[in-house]
Amino acid sequence: MNLPYFISSRIRNEELGSFSSIISKIAIASIAIGLAAMIISFLILRGFEKTVTQKIYDFSGHLQITKYTLSEAIENQPISLNSEFYANYQDYDFIDHVQEYAHKPGLLKTDEEVQGVIFKGVAKNFDLSHFQPSIEEGRFINFPDSTYSNEIILSRRLCNKLKLSNGDNVIAYFVQDPPRFRRFDVVGIYDTGLEEFDEKVVLADIDMIRRLNNWPDSLAGGLEVFVKDTDLIDEAEMELFSTIDFDLYVDKVSDKYIQIFDWLGLIGQNVIVFLILVLFIACFNMVSILLILIMERTQMIGMFKALGASDALVRRIFSLNGMYLVIRGMVIGNVIGLGFGVLQYYFKIIPLDPENYYMSFVPIHWDFQILILLNVLTFFLVNLTLLVPTIIVSRITPIKAIRFN
Q: What residues have CB less than 8 Å from 300, skipping those under 6 apart?
């Protein structure tokens, strides 16, 4: 029989209804609340990171290949689509898809409003599967075979500013020599929740931009590259840079929208600080509570020592008691944290203002590696701090402990 475990279980049974029982429940509640808060925080943090980064990547790809230039003009310098890379990009194991695009600034004018925008020209090979979830109303552009399409897709924000609806038409003016204008039909409305896109980007046919720029079909403003594993973007960037022509440049989309990724990094740092504070409070509570339990059992400790029990055995008894409280608290904390995650994931019970948070509800992302790490970290760190109060046991002498009142 495991004597320390047996005595520890008997102590727990005797505590029912006593002051020690109340203290134990406080210990369990502190562990449960702390772990649940950490689980919920990381579920939401990973949800924010995943949702925001996925929206950016869906709209712009993971990597962009453009003409190397010192200018920061919105309008792209053309690159050739007859390159060896574009013709054989399927040979690269890390690449999922490549599509061409072109940017051109313009003005959208209605009877009442004028708005400066950036036309993003896309082609038939545009990966609609990534962008489809952002289309709120209408459909995507139909690309004719012989000429360019006069259909465009506007953001919900632009439609509200210009007082347009799906199915309306609008005139676009392009400042060039000579100036030109085109009439477009609004066939779809999208909403990414990202101000950088929704404030200014209009999706159109790339052949329309080619016609305005007098480009042949073999030219485009750039290439958007989607990689299979986003964790290997840096390696993909280096390999592409060594593969493409010398006058081209590879840019990570995360570097182009660095302010958003910095914001996500700042949120991550705040969550780490929160994690440290919660663990500190949980450890402090467990040390305090175990000290109280030891003080209440001082006479019992003296009796055990008088009967020949070693300090290690007595410490083991209280360590097992503390470990039991930690495990119970962790089980309850996991139920609370994971239960909240399931409810929010499937029912979206907590909404958000998309104007400020880029999304309309609190996102949840299941990262089971982090969940396991949180449980392991909590278990070992809290149990490690339990060694501190048990050291007091070795300083208790039998004669003083038996007389203790």
A: none
